[in-house]
Every structure is written in structure tokens, then in C-alpha cells.
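Exercise 3.2. Students should predict the tertiary structure of the chain below and write it as C-alpha cells, then compare their answer with the key that follows.

Predict this chain's 3D structure.
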Amino acid sequence: MSQSHRLPAGGRIDRARPYAFTFNGKAYQGYAGDTLASALLANGVKVVARSFKYHRPRGIFTAGAEEPNALVQLAPGPYTDANTRATVAELYDGLDAGSQNCWPSVDFDVNAWTGMLGRLFPAGFYYKTFMWPPKLWMFYERIIRNAAGMGKIPPALDPDRYEQRYTHCDVLVVGGGPAGIAAALAAGRTGARVILADEQAEWGGALLAGAPDIGGKPALDWVADSLAELAAMPEVTVAGRTTVTGYFDYNYLTALERVTDHLGPGAGGDRPRQRFWKIRAKQVVLATGSIERPLIFPDNDRPGIMLASAVRTYINRYGVLPACQLVVFTNNDSAYRTAMDAHAAGSKVFVCDARRAPNGLLVQAARELGVTIYDNTVVTGTRGKKALQGVQVRELNDDASGVGAETWTIDCDGLAVSGGWNPTVHLHSQSRGKMRFDDNLAAFVPATGVAINPNRSAGACNGTMYATDCLIEGAKAGAEAAKAAGFGDGAAPVMPESAGLKEDPLLALWAVPTPKTSGKGGKAFHELQNDSTVADIHLAAREGYGAVEHLKRYTTTGMGTDQGKTSNVNALAVMADIRGTTIPEVGTTTFRAPYTPVTFGAIGGRNVKEGFEQARPTPMHPWHVANGVVFEDVGDWKRPWYYLEDGEDMHAAVMRECKVVRASVGVLDASTLGKIDIQGPDAAEFLNRIYTNAWTKLGVGKARYGLMLNEQGFIFDDGVTTRLGDNHFHMTTTTGGAARVMGWLEEWLQTEWPEMRVYCTSVTEQWAVASISGPRARDLMAELTDIDLDPQTFTHMSMREGDVAGVKARLYRISFTGEMGFEINVPAAYGLHLWETIMALGAKYDICPYGTEAMHVLRAEKGYIIVGQDTDGTITPMDAGMDWIVSKKKGDFIGRRSFARADTSRPGRKQLVGLLAENPAFVIPEGAHLVEELKPKPPMKTVGHVTSSYMSPSLDRSIALALVEGGLDRMGDTVTIALHGGGGCRAVVTDPVFLDKKGERLNG
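Answer key:
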């Protein structure tokens, strides 16, 4: 296969290993060491994508992670990966890729009409266009949804495996260029534990694009020798293909390692596709390099326009000549390296330099090679149907107006642009470090950091652009970081010098001045990925969005997958010009993690499917399985839902279980309740602040129901807490709220009341719990234990310790059914033994195991609430009819002050009530809305909703609980309930306690 733009020699590819690949269904060939982008360029492919908004043809613009254009879809099928940057996707044999965001093809995209009508779609058009008429929004929405997005999601579950790695180090060095390698060498030689991470497949950073000698030998030979030395150090970890994506407090950084991506789908064997690193470092050295800045001019997005550094990279690293006739448009010396390398590779080169009479060493060297140089000249436009065919250039006037200036056209198939360099300060910004604007670089550079994230920047990311200076600065940063971590004396080793030519300062040129006499021209894009133009920035300024954060969101600058790596500073410069101020005065946004996109699979690692939510069985689980149980998943617990006997369905099983509990005795596996052991001299006072009721005078061996509120005064969780000793309590929580409550307690202890001597330990899985309820419960307990069960002394809400079924146990007089009940807590290892003993001894009482559904029916008959079902996050104790549990005498507690808020105390709040349907046989659906007036279809004014609804075998009718506006004042009223699918029913508002209001059954 012919690779029309592949150079006959050179580059770092392996020409002995050809790889076949397909792009948009057409077969091509590349080599090992290629990226998809370099292989496409080698084969003369110019148009690889369509822009997001206007669907304009787009080509490859960069050679790295900053790529805004060449987003492709890899590997159709379950392994597919959308929005992959072709510039970092390593080529492998059989790679299959395609363009996205285009239909029917990248060469002919019917949605290109949006570009033709671009004047109708300026920045912010979506905020204005679709507001009127309101009835057409559903029509608009369908069109917008079809046009939104870029790639396609996988058609099946991701078959790849991902891993995570947690590690610590003394010094983390980010970046594998000259500064980063020098820093790692300096730190590693002190004996410090060092991690050197770089995102590329090869080491060397910018040196890979072509570099002079270092220390008298080829630069990449120095890189290889340095890497060999680092690999021999036992405390140094060298992590290639590893992008540090996030910088968080206390030097906690995340990184994504692409372990087998370069091998192709499923080719990694036992190895994972990617590994997500979580690193805690004592010190960090940032050597992340810099990103070349483009220049803005009309029609600056045609395929064939690239960053000058990218052209140089493709020539020297990949052996690809992107253009046979190349124009280099620059305002600085660095682009002359590209001009000379392209000239040496056989391209005819023209340089348009915006500076007057540039005469640096690189400029002189280019002239000596015969490169044509036009100084004081800018590119003012481009031409070409799809790909670039030529550029229009113009001399700059003294006033930069362009009036009367000489203009001409240069035929070319490539345009290399360079507007200077932006230090890659993203991680420094993420660390909450501040930046300053360097006028010499016309870019932001790191300034101050924060104490909790000790780091230092070195090399190009610190504004140091010459190789020798980068080596010196990197070695110094590495030595200082090691010393700060407790290793070495901080003295930097002597580093070799680079033999390259230094560059002259740049001219701060952002957008090409447009002649005042010109009428209209092509769009001048400052943000390629989101199709944002200079005109959009002017519109934002006119409409009052001149602040940097407003500008970003109004124009979507920097909001693509590339995070504006090639656009942000240019946008700030244009806004500064409009406002007549400076870039530092306009300000800059804060860069946020991740630096480059991270797959959800890598973030999840092995914490997926059963690894994410493992089935947590109770100790009694084997018995349940063997006895016809149907399980309910509550969080990750497997809770018995109901037990089926021959010929039963769920309704019959639940009715049977409820009747047995009310008539004799039933047993529930309550092991899943959250359990927290609370100890310490301040434990009682701590509970006093956590709960709404008083706890300091609770006696040892006594239990109390407690209600927790959040800061807004809304019900957060509930449960029973027992005092085991003067400074020792046992708290129970809802099954689903156990982890949430534990975190809540620790948050208050660690952040608000650190002076309190209280220690909380989760013991949920330490105890197995069997709860027996019913009028025969005491009779059964008497056969299980020799603990004194006298109801006069062992009263409701008490606890005693002793032997139960031959096992040391804690026995509680607690009930959630409204019947006399006992909760037996034994060590988890004895849970199955306890359960089997209860079932054996309970046979004479016709004991029945019951599940969570019967428990719900029984508790609803009694009017007991379930937090999260009968509350919705906005319910206060008073709303739930539980003002009796709010202490009026004790001191402050969490949420108390919120009761004084106007909204919390206003009339008409939703309150918990009971409902009795007019048709006793009809069970009102849970979630059904109470409405002021029933209409044939929505919308209808709602006044509440049903939270719990069951058929009650004890009452031989349906019952329900509901949250109703002003419900406590509506007792006896008849309300209307709208039903799903149309129609409604009527119900009477009642007290939520339907059975045994005096508690005679409960107290036995």
C-alpha cells in the first residue's frame, strides 16, 4: 500500500513492522510506532472529522493530547471508544476507526447546513432561540437531542478489565521531557522513593520532535542512558503511558496508565486495559512542558492547518511530511525549526513572520538554507474546498489597519502556525496554585502554591524554554524536592549542556488585524473544538459576559474534551483587546481535573458488578435459601422479603405471615440493621447533640428511640440506642442508612467537635439479630434463656445480657411490629445456630418466619414510619406528628435552630397522616398523588402523595400513609387521589395509627 506522504527514511517508527488498519471503511497501512494521526497523514488523509457545531471539515491540528479536531471512534462493537484523539491513539495491527459527528460520511455531511447559516447560530443561540413559542419546545428538543453528542456509546457491556493502584512516594515527577528526567535523576540519586510518570509511549518529551545534542551525544541517547540509570534504582518507578490527570489536596494525585490500549481490543491477555493510579506524594515536581499557541485569522480551521510543532513532530518522530508546499506563519523563532526541518525533508517552505526584520540565529540559519521569508507579514485567510489549497497574506501597516497594504496568495497544501507557547500549568492550577502573566512569553506561568500541596515547577511549564536551562532547572527541582522529603542535601547535580540555538522573544500577536475596509470574511476560530469564533467573544462582551467565567460559559471556550488547551489564552487576549485592558486583568479560569479524559472503567476499576455491590448475606442466609424465601435487595444486603409455601403467591404469603405474628409468634432476621458502638467520656453528651431527645440521664440497661435531623431540621435517620455502660452505647440505624449515619457521626466529631472524647466503631456485621414478635413471644423466650423475663422488671425498651440458646447474648425488649417483642443479638458466628434453635423450639407455637414485606404491613398498622419512605428529605419531626420526641428542656442539637425558619414553621406544610380508601379492597398505589381536582390528564394541582400502602389482614381492609399539605388539620376530610393511567379514587384522612393506639399489645 502506498503511503504518499511517508518519508523514505527517518523517524522513530519500526518500518520492519507494517500494520494494516482501516479508517471510515477504507484500508490503509502504517508502522509500529505510529499514532493513528501520523498514519493517516502518511496516507494523505486530510479530512478526518467534522466540527461539533457547524460540521465544518476538520483535519489533524496537533500531535498530542491537546488535539481539538481529530476525535474519532475506535473499534466498533463492545470495545468501542468514542472521542478518542487520533494524535494519541497508538496504531496497532487491525485497528478500525471512523469519523464521528457526521452523516452520512465525513466527506459529505448533511448537517453542514448549520455552517452555511452560521449567522443564525452565534454564541448563546440555544438560550434564546428555543424559548418561544413554548409549545414547540418538545419539537425542538427532539432535533437538538438527535444533533447533540459526538461519538456512539458501546452496544454492550464493556468487556475490558481495569485495575487501580494505590501508592506513596517521596517525590512524584510529572513529565518525561528533559526537565522531568533531570528531576527524577536528581531525586533518585538521593535514595528517595521516586515515581516518574509521562503520558507518552516514548520518553523524551519535546526532544522526540527533533533536538540538538545533549552533552556531546544525540539527545535521545542521553534520554535512553538516563532511563537505564533510573530503571536500575530500586526506589524509582518509571511509569510510561501514564497521564497524571488530577491534583488534589495534600498532594493526592491521580493518573491513568494505558496498559494495553496500544495492543488492540482483547489483546492484553491477563493484563488490564488501563490502570488508575492514586498517588500520595510528599513532594511533587511538575515538568509538564508547554503547548504551542495557534494564531487566529479567517478560515483558520481548514484541514491542512497545523501547529508548527506538530508538523515538526510528524517529520522527525514519525517520518511523515504533512505538506509538500508549506507556509509557516509565526510570531516567534521556534517555528523556524519547523521550516528548516520541512525544507530538509523536501518541502517547499515559505515563512510569514509577523515581526519586523527578525534576525535571530534560527532565522539566519533558515535563510542560509534558502527558505523564503516574508517579514512583517500575516496570513489573512485560506482557500480550498475541503482541504487547504492556498493562503492569502498581507503586509502589516504601521497602524496594523491593513488599508492599502500589499496582499498576495501563496499556493500550499500545508500551513504551520505558531503564536508562541503556553506553559502547561493545568496541574499547578488544580493544586490551587496561583499564576502570573509573563509579558516576555505572553503566557501564564506558575507563581505561588499552597502549603498543603508542596510542589515546584521546572522546565517549559515554568516558562523555561531552552533545553540546557530546562535540564538545570529540573535537576535543581528534583534535588530540592528530595531534600524537602528528607533525602539528600538539596544540591543539584551538574547537568550536560544542549548544543541548540536559543530563540528570540516573540511578538505578542493573537488575532490577525482585519483591514477596516474589508466587508466580510470567513470565520476566525479561537476555539476549534466547540466552533467558537472571535465574533462570539465580541457578542459576549456586548451582552455583558466580559468576565472570564461568563465568557467561558457563554461562548463554550475551553469546555470541550481538550479543555481549551489551544484556545484559552487567545480568547482572553481578544477579550482584553475588546475591553481595552490586559490579559491579567481579564483573568483566567481555574483548570479542573481531569487533565485529559478518563474512562469510567478505569475510575471504577474492579469495583463493578458484584465487585461494586457485593451481595451481603446474613449469618442465617443458608436457612432462608432452604426454606422458600424470596429475597429483597436492600442496599447490598440480601434480606428475606417473604417466604412461599405451596400454592402461595406473594400476597398470600404476606397475609399469612402477618396473621401468625398477630396471633402467636413470628421471627424476623434483623441482622442487617446498622449497628454502631459508641464509647467515651463524652458519649452521652454527643448523643444529646445528635438526637432530638435527651440522653444524659438514660439509665444503664435502658434503650431509647432516637431521631436524627440534618442542619435544615429535616429527618435524617432513626433507630434505637441502648446504654450499655456509663460511657458506652449501642446505636442501631436503618439498614440503608448505616454507612451514611456512621459518616455523619464522624463528620461532626472530626470537624465540628474535635474536643469531644468519643469513639465510634461500626459493628453491623459483628452481631446477628433475630427479632421475635407476637403474643407468645415471651413464652418462646422462656424456653430459650434463663434471663428473668418478668414484664414488671424487664420492661419495653430495656436490655439484659445472658445466655440465649446457649450463647452469650444481648437481649432487648424492642418491637417494630406493635406486638410484644424481643431482639436477640449474638456474635455473628452463632447466628445460624440461634435461628435454627428458635425455629425448633417455636414449632409448638406455630412460629412463622416473616420477611420485610410483612414487617412493613405490621409497622404501618401501628403507624411507625420508615425514614426515606415515609419521609422525603423535607419533613420535620412536627410534620411527621413526632413533636413528642423533640426535647424542650435540653440544650442545642443538630437541626434545632432550623425550626425557627419561616418555611419550616409555616402553615400548610406536608404532614404525615393515614388514609382509608372508600373501597376497602382497593390498595392505593404507593407514590400516587393527592390532587385538588381530578382532571382527564395532567397537569393537576397536587397536595400530597402516598408514601406507604398495604392490605391489612388485621383490619381486613387497605391502609395507607401519606404526606399531605396541612394534613393534621384535615382529619376526617375526603381527598381525591389521581391514578396512573387515568381516573382516581377517594380516601378519608385519618390518624396514622390504625391498630392498638394505647400500646396494650406492645407492653404485653
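Discussion points: The first strand starts at residue 14 and ends at 23. Confidence is low (pLDDT under 50) at residues 514-519.
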